[in-house]
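WARN no homologs supplied; continuing
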Amino acid sequence: MAEVVAERHSPASEEGTGNVFPTAVSEEQLQEAREKFQKRIFGSSRVFLEVDSNPHRRSTFEDIVQDKLTEHYERGLQCLSQGEWEKAVISFSKAINLCPEKIQLYVKRAEAFLQLCDFQSAALNLQKACSITHPLQEHTELLAFTYYLQGQSLFDQMCLLDALESFTRATEIQPQNRQYHMRSICCLAALGRYTDCIRLLNKQLEEEQGNPELYIVRARLYDSINKATLTYHDVQKALAMDPEHREALRIKEKLMTTAAEAKVKAVNYAVQGQLQEALRKISFALENNPSSAEYHIFRGTVYARLKDFSAAVDDFVQAMQLCSAESGDGRQGLQLYTEAEKQLLLTYNNFAVHCYMKGFYQEGVLLLNKALKGERNKKELYINRGDCLFQLGELAFALADYQQALELDEGDWGIRIRVAKLLDEMGLQAQQLRQYQQAERHFSEAILKHPLLPQLYLHRARLRRSLRNNMDAQEDAVISILLNPRSDEAVPTMMNFFAGISLDEIINSKLADSALCVLEKNLINIPVEWKESIHSMREQVDGATIRTEIDIAICMSDQELTEMSQRQRQLKQEVQAALNRRGRLKSTAPRISEPPVSQPRKNPKDTPHHWKQFGLGLTKPWISREYIGGS
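OK structure emitted
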């Protein structure tokens, strides 16, 4: 360095060049000396040598950084094109160190990491690129695809939870990509989390309802958790979109076969009387084939036999709806609809009878109303509703139902018994209300409906005696005795109407002949069997009705109707007696008062004797003993 300085200040140099500060060496020598000096200080580094290579240009620091950045980036691209992924990562990393805010560097380094199958590093680089500024769509798509590749790699390695996390991240970035959703569902299915799979599929189906493949996938998932009904519905939806879908047809055929086998077993159990097992099997059949009207009808009948009427009604209604929806089935569909409707009406009736037995008469009326909406030609339905109304005290409405049933079958004397006893009850109520004319009219109508009930004549006889119509009253009393001479009412009747006269005398009297003629007139339209029982004069005819076999249950029999009327009448008498026994409001407690004045006792000999006079019990003076006795 000292030599160079000495040479620069020598006189020879100044004279030869003509410069202000002439030197003895040329510029080339000075440049060479300068390079030696820099080499001695900086060694092999060429950073400062390149800066000074052009003596006419002095580069700034930013230019130097930019040049190196460009150099590393271009070298990285060259390595990517040549397949040197590691070198590309190094070059891009150097460039990132020089400029950490440049997005493209992270993207390119992520591509190099993807080629190296380092998905986690690639994802981190893409996340960094998306976080610097507003992310571009191509960068987010590449990030989602990176997670997808990572998840697929983990899935192949059976790292299911990690794979699920990667697929979930890809789905969150691109929720419209169905492929990412399906891969998440695959992971959940492999983990056995079928419910979560179905939940994801439901969300997917909300956006894409026209894809039969999604319904098939959900059908398989439902089949995996033994929900055959939902499986069937999804298969039906898929077939509605694509009737020739092979997988859907295969699943449906499997369901139909399983249902048919279960139905055969249910029939066998029902024949053996094992209704619970039959119910379990037919329910399983319906789970696999819920659109079968035949299966619903069969299960409804099983429910009805088990007294589960509400479930039976639901099944019959469902069967009718299915037959209506599939009206194209033709004759078979019509037959199934008719059978379901018939069973539904029977179930309503049986349910009403069950309610009647439990004392729920109002519910029975409502059920029979439903039955009568569908069938108005069944007399048993009117009879049962009349029985329920009878129990509710709605005698007028009950009478209307009984009369409607009688119009449907004039020869059913069981209905006549109901009408007669109901009219008898209405007559007793009218008599209690002192409506005697109306009461007599009710008793007379009851006798016309059923002339063989002795209590009808007895009730009218008592009413007529209170109305001073003694002749007709005795005639009705004789008829009641003739109809049933062995009843408990026979002796009291003789004592009230024919005191002191024996039964034989009454039967052989002219009054009995007249009463028998009246009875014969009333018996014109009754069956021959009943007429023969009248001539014997010794048979119990109360309740001896002739009834044909029917397939509809009746709320109460004729005998039960009689007992019910008697119970109601006895209850009313007890209530009235209790009211009569009620004490007076006037106090009967002892009071402090003056002692009573003692009265002198009378001599018994001074009291006259008054003898009680007894008659024959006949109020009509012209009816003699000879008329009664027949002598």
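The CA atoms of residues 601 and 607 lie 11 Å apart.
OK
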